Input
Amino acid sequence: MIVESSVGSCDAILTEDLQMKHVCAKFVPRLLTDDQREQRQTIARDLFGRSCEDVQFLKNIVTGDESWVYGYDPETKQQSSQWKGPKSPRPNKGHQVRSKTKVMLQALFHSEGIVHH
Output
């Protein structure tokens, strides 16, 4: 069965009758598993507790990060948009296509800022 309907009618049904919106996904660097999210929360609570006990605690921490950084070909807003209902969560976008540009980024930090990069 083929139903002939105009784009305007379809849009009106989606937006007015079904109360749906066309939204773009928010970008998140990486989608974490439940275990990874729980581990990060546990570590953050532990560090917060230690910093409350000892005011000098954070000044003694030097941390580093090492990561490969790629250039990306970003998706346009139109390409990443989706229809969602009024109670649906906003969609997340966790993956983009990597380009051939790749650089190693290393940085060391302490409480006053970057130590070395």
The radius of gyration is 23 Å. The chain is about 30% helix and 35% strand.
